[in-house]
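Box 3.1 A note on notation
Throughout this textbook, protein chains are presented in two layers. The first layer is the amino acid sequence; the second is a token string describing backbone geometry. Keep the layers aligned when reading.
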Amino acid sequence: MQTPEPLLPDVARRTAAWCGVVLLVAGVAAVAIWLCVTLKTAVTPILLALLGTALLGPVYRRLTAHGVNRSVAAGFTCALLVAVVGGAGYIVVTALVDSGDQIVQSLKDAGQWVIDHFGIADGTNVDDLTANARNLIEKFGASAAGGVLSGISLLGSLAATSVLALLLTFFFLRDSDRAVNLAHAVAPRGTGDLVEAMGRRAFEAVEGFMRGTTFIALIDAVCITVGLLILGVPGAVGLGALVLVGAYIPYLGAFLSGTVAVLVALADRGLVIALWALGVVLAVQVLEGHILQPMIQSRTVQMHPATIMIALTAGASVAGVLGMLLAVPVCAAVFGIIGELRKGRTEPPEAPAPDASPSPSGA
């Protein structure tokens, strides 16, 4: 009996199959993003808690390795987190409050310098530009932060989210050993080991990203602050605080904070000092890109800058500033899972055991 020929050539059938896979993955991703946006009141603390767990995991594991009770170790680690974040937040806020007016005035002077020296249209006033920028920032902040907890003020929303994230961090640290059993329980039959491996790889990627980014942010902030202090730029500590916070938004945060530092130097100290400040910022960025990043984050998922920019844009469109902060860690976890899948697929099959029976020639 003759086998009927397929209606479509092999290339067309393969293309159709891949299109079906792409559409299925895109549909699942769209549903997942929609659920995250709809349930962002619950999803946001969970994601923040996962980031906190990834950052504090080494401290917790060191405590438990020395015989400390799991609950005590998790509680101490969370208390350490509150102390560090609270202290850093106090320093950042104090620095910005103390030098905020001076920085804003310097930025206005820099804007007026640009208008005067580059012949921008008559009638343009830097105060009008400042008012327009303030309106844009207010609209962007309202769209990014609005709706976190419906009907509650922004301060109350942030406090509730922070407390819930802290409690979840405690439970994630204390009960991390149960995650393996949960992975095997929810995974389809025969895929428990793969799900466990993907989860471990994703968490390792996020853990490495958080530790590396925090360390790099501290080095960047200290170097730029010292450079601005040597140059005598006003508000150097506040500008360094901006660098520290902006480092958690790769590329874009460093660009914005560096631009503010250069403009402040231009307005207060002139063009020569502004060029020196630009040199300091660029030198720190070169140090970060060519030395710190390869050394500190060599064991984490390496992502191309274009991939990071796309992730930042997508995160901003979905959840505003919070989405920008979470976009790169989530992207690192996804790349870790993909890497684990490729690793499992490309591993060569185990060679069969050699036959122990004698060969016919030796019989």
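Residues 140-152, 355-363 have pLDDT under 50 and may be disordered. The longest helix spans residues 70-117.
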